[in-house]
Amino acid sequence: MKYALIGCGRISPNHIAAAKANELEFTGICDINEEMLLEKASEFELRDVLQYTDYHEMLEKEKPELVAIATESGKHAEIALDCIKAGCNVIIEKPMALSLADADAVIQAAKEKGVKVCVSHQNRFNKSVQKIRKTLEEGRFGRMFYGTAHIRWCRNENYYTQAKWRGTWEQDGGALMNQCIHNIDLLRWMMGDEVDEVVGMTDQLNHFYIEAEDLGIALIKFKNGAYGIVEGTTDIYPKNLEETLYLFGEKGTVKAGGQSVNRIEEWRFADTQDKPEEVIAEFAENPPNVYGFGHTPLYADVIDAIQNDREPYVNGEAGKRALELVLAIYKSAAEGKAVRLPLEDCATVDFRGRFDR
């Protein structure tokens, strides 16, 4: 399967490694920054992969079947629509878009063109998360009471100066949209997906050189009667502390932690189907960074979805739900009141000036 990558930034090594591991025919790599493009091509020995600074030219000449989009967030939807128009299946880095209208446009275009859209919420493929999900689907939790997502990370000024789009409303959003959306996706997915209302608060406590928030806190009421709590920040000193997901049910309690919810740390169920110490020992991955090991199985799933004409495990609708929840928190925080879902059109740019001093 012919494959191409658009964007050679911070997350691109995971996409390159996943493409290689799945033996895709790597035909093109693109970035408007030639220095970054050459650096990645050299680092990963992409000698036979043609290099482009214009993705339109790459799409026309290489005609890839699958394209991964790993640019700044504000360009995701525009590039995805161009790729879909060219007949390409797409893997879009999170978030899939920065507005609900753009997310809908991508989903609709893919349906009309008959191609697949996958959003790269790769933590769904963590072994720990897959174990929890299987247990949830088996009904071992009983009725779900509530869940919590904690993302306690550090991002310093150097992180933002490396790429001027970071922390802007037009191209990124803040901590919730960039750093926390993976765990927000997991929380919504695990707690029943359908949200009734959201109450949120956001603030900019320490990063006065960006436009968006560095702290977000939210209370979520799901349609099934369960609740969710989100706590996300990039203010932790002096380095990343944890990304943790708790699930509390009538008959089960689980805690997944580590750098990217890659370890099961608590496993308590009323039944005796498995031994907690064995589960904790088995599901204890230790990835080198917060991106985890999920890109390779995500790619394998997308390839299979294309070949067998089915929806990817993390499709466009799943990507939209994660985006919608973050936007709902932003909207609630800005308006100072609860927000009901589904949202009408909403976008990060709606919150320009929120933290202007």
Structure characterization notes:
34% of the residues lie in helices and 23% in strands. By secondary structure, the chain is α/β, with parallel strands linked by helices. It has 2 domains: 2-122 and 295-315, Rossmann fold (3-Layer(aba) Sandwich), CATH 3.40.50; 126-287 and 320-351, Dihydrodipicolinate Reductase, domain 2 (2-Layer Sandwich), CATH 3.30.360. The strands form 2 sheets. An 8-stranded mixed β-sheet has the order 13-12-11-7-10-9-8-14. A 6-stranded parallel β-sheet has the order 3-2-1-4-5-6, sandwiched between helices. Strand 5 (89-93), helix 5 and strand 6 (117-120) form a beta-alpha-beta unit. Helix 1 (12-21) packs across helix 11 (295-307). It is globular, with a radius of gyration of 20 Å.
Highlighted features:
357 residues; alpha/beta; Rossmann fold; Dihydrodipicolinate Reductase, domain 2; eight-stranded mixed β-sheet; six-stranded parallel β-sheet; 12 helices; 23% strand; nucleotide binding
Just name the CATH architecture of the largest domain: 2-Layer Sandwich
Q: Which stretches of 5+ consecutive residues score pLDDT under 50? A: none
Total beta strand runs: 14
Helix tally?
A: 12
By CATH reckoning, the class of the largest domain would read Alpha Beta
Shape: globular
Radius of gyration: 20 Å
Strand content: 15-25%
Strand order of the largest sheet: 13-12-11-7-10-9-8-14
Quaternary assembly: single chain
What is the succession of H and E elements?
EHEHEHEHEHEHEHHHEEEEEEHHHE
Q: Mind describing the biggest β-sheet? A: 8 strands, mixed
CATH level 3 topology of the largest domain: Dihydrodipicolinate Reductase, domain 2
